[in-house]
């Protein structure tokens, strides 16, 4: 059985393996593809003129939070080192707020946060939420409504990537949190292998060569044959899952408790079967030690399908200390067959907090302070912001990374992100990814046909959530 983090984990959650310890604190005053393409066009149009929702009446731009004072507690499952950096950057801009951070690993964090919110006992003022967890909380009264006149979040969110703005809202259109990052996805590729087996490392030429899944299958067969079976075009079958399940165009379970259609499930599973049958992937087992070593020390695959956070939380961590110069200009980024996103982290304020002004100062600074986002989040951590003014400045300044050479990949991130249509996030998402991954593993190992995997997925979901209707 493969062991891996959930596909929906964000960059920050992936980094949680470096936690300095459970509960540690840092106080610092310092037809699916076609549907997806159509959805992308709709999102691009929405970016040009968003329609107003019920929650968009509150707040005006320009609330100055730099003079905020008080103390706040922030709970998170991000890494201690990340949070130390965030607190330091925050206090450069808002020196009057003392921030105490409590870091916990994922499962413990979810349990303790739920208990604290529901009982109101020792609850944090601010909490971080992975995308699937935010989907569970945002339609409750546990998170502060940021669309009221007390905040200027509406004005801020209108300058966010459209899909991020959409996912930040509850079913009534009110903002229940803000995200500091957008997580558009594509293919990351090893330039030397691309030149050897595909004849180019130019991202536009590669995208034209691999513009749809049929092309990927055919080119993958050629790579396998040319390499004598030593190199896979894709790293692992999970790359198909990462991309396909991230632009499905519908929730896993709809408002009437009906599970997603067999058409989508079978389209994905049949594609996975074709990848396996034609040796398109290297069987690198995403998230395993072998997969990680394949990023740098081994030549196993050319492409991995992961979002923007992959460079700093998957690729670069595999480069040994002292060898960063040697790794210069070894990786590139290209667009995938359809625009997708995967992951993301939101900040939400507990509705029972007695320190809401200071809590909002944190949320606003971390998600919409352009100087911090450009020079801190992007400049030092390499993360891709959700706030469009910051993105545009990064692009204007020519953001690059040593590992990608002179490629200014933020422009590609931006183009993809503006064409992503947000899939509704619900309480079922985390389990849906887990159940789909389990069936994918069976299929990859020859233990299930696509039809059996489809049925197994639906039965597993219904076993855990009996209210689900299987058509």
From TrEMBL:
The keyword Acyltransferase does not apply. Residues 1-20 form the signal peptide. Pfam families: SBP_bac_1. Keywords: Cell membrane, Lipoprotein, Membrane, Palmitate, Signal. The keyword Cell membrane applies. InterPro entries: Bact_solute-bd_prot1, SBP. Residues 46-55 have a biased composition (Low complexity). Residues 21-63 are annotated as: Disordered. This is Extracellular solute-binding protein. It comes from Enterocloster bolteae 90A9. The lineage of its organism: Bacteria, Bacillati, Bacillota, Clostridia, Lachnospirales.
């Amino acid at each position: 059985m493969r062991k891996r983090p959930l596909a929906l984990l964000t960059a920050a959650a992936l980094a949680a393996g470096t936690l300095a310890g459970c509960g540690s604190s840092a106080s610092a005053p310092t037809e699916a593809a076609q549907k997806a393409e159509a959805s992308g066009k709709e999102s691009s149009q929405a970016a040009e003129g968003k329609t107003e929702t019920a929650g968009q009446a509150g707040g005006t731009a320009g609330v100055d939070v730099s003079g905020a004072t008080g103390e706040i507690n922030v709970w998170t499952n991000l890494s201690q080192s990340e949070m130390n950096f965030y607190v330091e950057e925050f206090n450069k801009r808002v020196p009057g707020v003392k921030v105490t951070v409590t870091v916990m690993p994922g499962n413990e964090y979810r349990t303790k946060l739920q208990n604290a919110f529901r009982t109101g006992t020792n609850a944090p003022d601010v909490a971080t939420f992975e995308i699937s967890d935010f989907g569970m909380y945002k339609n409750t009264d546990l998170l502060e409504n940021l669309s009221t006149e007390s905040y200027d979040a509406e004005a801020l969110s209108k300058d966010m990537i459209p899909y991020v703005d959409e996912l930040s809202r509850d079913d009534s259109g009110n903002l229940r949190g803000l995200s500091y990052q957008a997580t558009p996805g594509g293919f990351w590729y090893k330039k030397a292998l691309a030149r050897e087996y595909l004849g180019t490392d130019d991202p536009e030429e590669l995208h034209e060569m691999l513009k749809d899944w049929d092309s990927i299958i055919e080119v993958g067969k050629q790579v396998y044959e040319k390499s004598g079976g030593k190199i896979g075009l894709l790293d692992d079958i999970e790359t198909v899952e990462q991309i396909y399940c991230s632009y499905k165009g519908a929730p896993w379970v709809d408002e009437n408790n009906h599970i997603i259609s067999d058409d989508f499930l079978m389209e994905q599973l049949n594609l996975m079967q074709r990848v396996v049958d034609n040796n398109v992937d290297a069987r690198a087992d995403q998230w395993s030690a072998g997969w990680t070593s394949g990023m740098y020390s081994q030549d196993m695959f050319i492409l991995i399908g992961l979002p923007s956070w992959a460079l700093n939380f998957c690729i670069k961590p595999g480069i040994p200390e002292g060898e960063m110069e040697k790794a210069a200009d070894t990786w590139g980024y290209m667009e995938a067959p359809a625009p997708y996103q995967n992951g993301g982290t939101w900040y939400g304020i507990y509705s029972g907090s007695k320190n809401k002004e200071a809590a909002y100062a944190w949320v606003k600074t971390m998600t919409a302070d352009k100087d911090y986002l450009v020079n801190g989040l992007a400049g030092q951590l390499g993360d891709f912001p959700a706030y469009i003014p910051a993105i545009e400045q990064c692009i204007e300044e020519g953001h690059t990374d040593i590992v990608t050479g002179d490629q200014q990949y933020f422009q590609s991130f931006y183009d993809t992100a503006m064409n992503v249509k947000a899939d509704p996030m619900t309480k079922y998402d985390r389990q849906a990814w887990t159940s789909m991954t389990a069936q994918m593993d069976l299929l990859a190992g020859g233990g299930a046909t696509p039809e059996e995997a489809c049925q197994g997925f639906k039965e597993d979901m219904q076993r855990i959530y009996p209210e689900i209707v299987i058509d």
